[in-house]
Amino acid sequence: xxxxxxxxxYEMSISGTTSKTNSxxxxxxxxxTLTPRLRRDVIVATxxxxxxxxxIHLFHNNSRGAxxxxxxxxxxxxxxxxxxxxxxxxxxxxxxxxxxxxxxWGVRLVSYHNIHRYLQQRWSPAPxxxxxxxxxxxxxxxxxxxxxxxKKYVDLHHIPYASESFDVVAADQVLEHVIFPxxxxxxxxxxLKPGGIAIFTTIAYNPLHEGRKxxxxxxxxxxxxxxxxxPFKNVPLCGSWGNANAIATRAALGLGxxxxxxxxxxxxxxxxKINPFVVWMIVEK
Length: 285
Prior knowledge:
9 helices, elongated
């Protein structure tokens, strides 16, 4: 019996010849046929590309997560946190004339007075690059030409500006509406220039902002603001204002009542530390 060693030998045995001089049958090559070496190179290149994309994705997302853990982890930053909570928050009470001429500030009057006073003492002339997330125009004078983003739908967890873009960022009554305030603080720190400041006011008490286009997530004490300040170098200004009467009046009359009801102005100089209504803070990068 004839031994068949290959497909070519098999074909020749079927045709009845074993001549090596006969031309073998040629098969049309398969399209895009890869040699073993080329196939290996393509697989390796694909794996390297996928690995690089995965590393970029993980670095982009985990760098923020790592920063959050590094800064806000109580175990890692216990000493810094304890030191920050010892920050002295001095509140300057406005004069009767200031109260009378700024009645429209309502329960925010003392916070605006202290921030305005700090800005006047810190800068002359005003810094050139400023970002206002939201805020009352008058208390920021003479710094009213802020770049505003309050009328745009901007994710404050991802502020759409380059790092070190601004000398000042002002966020007036914003923190309570941000889902993750710690991420917002990291972003504000990022867009501030070295030596720049960020201004925050928020509430320790307020009725729910029900039915409005923004959600109402948080209420803050001064210690809460000081904890949020950990990414920053220092806190040159902080404070709180409130009293039981102001809180009771707001609870009874609802949002907006502070600019219409005289009892708020009548009690503006009464500041009970255990009954904060409004809190504020300025931080420096």
